Amino acid sequence: MQLSDRITQLTGDGSDGWDVFYRSRQMVADGEPVIELTIGEHDVRTDPSILEAMHKAALGGHTGYAMVPGIKSLREAVASRIQKRTGVPTTYENVLISAGGQAGLFAAHTAVCNPGDRALYLDPYYTTYPSTIRGTAAVPVVVHTHAEDAFQPRAEDIDAESEGATSLLINSPNNPTGTVYSRQTLDGIADVCKRHDLWLISDEVYDTQVWEGDHVSPRALPDMAERTIVVSSMSKSHAMTGSRIGWICAPKEVINRLIDLATNTTYGVAGFIQDATEFALSQGAELEDKVAEPFRRRRLLAKEILAQQNTVGLIPAQGAMYLMLDIRATGLSGEEFANKLLDTHMIAVMPGESFGTAAAGHIRVAMTIDDERFAAALNTLCEFAKDIAETT
């Protein structure tokens, strides 16, 4: 008896780069006072008004099977939000409600990739990207971005890997770098997609967390709506990470096929979760801004602290809830630095190498603890880096 190659080869070979995180979590479990700046989990949880709407819907009986594509009124609410934010005509027929953004990414690749197809993604990347692609039996093909470009992708680098490829996965605002792709960058990506007939899968879960510039959905670019699949969710915009609800926005014929997939996999999302999501969206930008505000504030705080020293460099933090810090002046890899920082100061950060190779010599810091402790931890990190740099 054997397991399938698809499941046994899902994560590839070797370490997944998250050893520091696993070690810090074990230290926390053992009662040690670790300051965690690792994963993108809000320190302020789901707004009570959303939980009240969820509770009311559950008590009201919306606990049975819900419509597999999503409740029509919620699909309409999502479509309205997308059209308002992007200017692209969008109806409920362009929307499928998914069990979070992760399920949406898997479904999107399943929709467009045949087994063995080359599916492109950018490095640095959110940790599940290559495994998600492998899960669909496609072949993940990495395209590197560069620290000297603030990790803005180069169209020529994507073009060089695009011959015979089927899809390209992008993420802006970006996790882990905090980079918001410029219009010039997106125009270059769009040109490559059209030239090589690629499907563009756009992960836009951080679209409400933009601190500099503007978020441009590539679906809004000329002739791109027909070849773009957008994945988003309520996790980051509304601090609903555990509710596991998101959506896919795509051409109608793609959505129709994805409804078939959902029927045979998730069989939809709980009705009371959908009702709470519809309520949350009805609160508009005010609630989204409330959820985003701590990260906006802490980013400014971080910029002030980092400006007072010259050992740790800051990749322009244009969006999302993370800082990508350049610690190459210490002579250490991101993984070495993160382990030493955890051992000596009980501050846990993510090595840049956890997200691929392009961010080697960097660390990712999640801005997910209260302002006072965040500032203290960042000051300690900078002093630690300075001490190492001065002794090497």
From TrEMBL:
Q: Give GO BP annotations, semicolon-separated.
A: amino acid metabolic process
UniProt keyword annotations, A-Z: Aminotransferase, Pyridoxal phosphate, Pyruvate, Transferase
What this protein is called in its record is Aminotransferase
Q: Which InterPro entries match?
A: Aminotransferase_I/II_large (IPR004839), AspAT/PAT-like (IPR050596), NHTrfase_class1_PyrdxlP-BS (IPR004838), PyrdxlP-dep_Trfase (IPR015424), PyrdxlP-dep_Trfase_major (IPR015421), PyrdxlP-dep_Trfase_small (IPR015422)
Q: Does the keyword Transferase apply?
A: yes
The cross-references to PROSITE patterns, in alphabetical order and at most eight, read: AA_TRANSFER_CLASS_1
Record-listed E.C. numbers: 2.6.1.-
